[in-house]
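Good morning C.,

I know you're traveling, so I'll keep this short. The sequence:
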Amino acid sequence: MTARFNPIAIWTLTAEGAALGHRLQAHFPESRLFVGQRAAENAPGAIPFARLAEILPRHFHQYAGHVFIMATGIVVRSLGGLLQHKTKDPAVVVMDECGQYAISLLSGHLGGANRLARRIGACLGAQAVITTATDLHQVPAIDLIAQERHLVIENPEAIRHVSMALLEGRSIGLHDPYGYLLGALPTQAVKAGEDADSSGPGVWVDDIRIDRPAETLILRPASLFIGMGCNRHTPSTEMRALLDHVLAQFSLSAACIAGLASIDIKADEEGLLALAADLSRPLSFFTRDQLATVTDIPSPSAIVEKHVGVPSVCEAAAILASGRGPLIVPKQTTPNVTIAIARINSTSSA
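The tokens, ready to paste straight into the viewer:
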């Protein structure tokens, strides 16, 4: 995902719009104001531009949100070719120059445009205009719930099936063995005692990989912690190859990796650091004394204990990193790498 360096960008073409943009900046102090060059000389601190269509592509995915103080038609035409996906696009809100309306135009839920429009309305006394059906009918928005519960949406194309079922008052199947959606959906919205199955729209919340019907929305929790041990100077490619193999062998989703862990003497291991960076996951380290507190190790090693001082690195590190959750994958090895996987006990663990 492209880095977003500032919360929002404010765009306008006129002096009147620039004045409203300055008012808005007072409530969003880290925002940046872009003003058409004809009006920019009377807009101190603003960034001037000649043509919106030329400058916008360079900045569109650099911000979490954009507020356009101009006609909606101009904005729609300027966005052509810039949109990627509802899970990636930033929020877009359009305002009129008089500050009467704040229209949530794009990425209302996941991008936060609905929330941004409401905040602008509260700050400037504008009417927030929200058109997403779930908001209008006060029906739970499953994509927003997933975002709030820190769940990765694996197949966003299934959102519409679940949302439509909820809008029409139909109940959905739910597979959520660890309670990540506990309290998020009304009781009447879930089929009593039924898992997400092939009978209609459903939601599957798990780290297990399994084929599901197209109408089933798959949500991935950050539930897996990877314990790793390795010989010195082992390349990250060998580590990644074993990790991918183990995940496939045990039908686990890589999207559910919450973090990696090892012993502290590996804190400078380049391959391990590179793997964590490649996965964009945190890497934690434990001392010998900490690892030694994990006594129920299924695969202790006399060789590891001789060279490192503890009977286990990868299994003990995985268990500790997961908040002493269950070890679901015991030690797996190559000549240079060991991997074990533990699952957190609950959404509040680790």
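Safe travels,
E.
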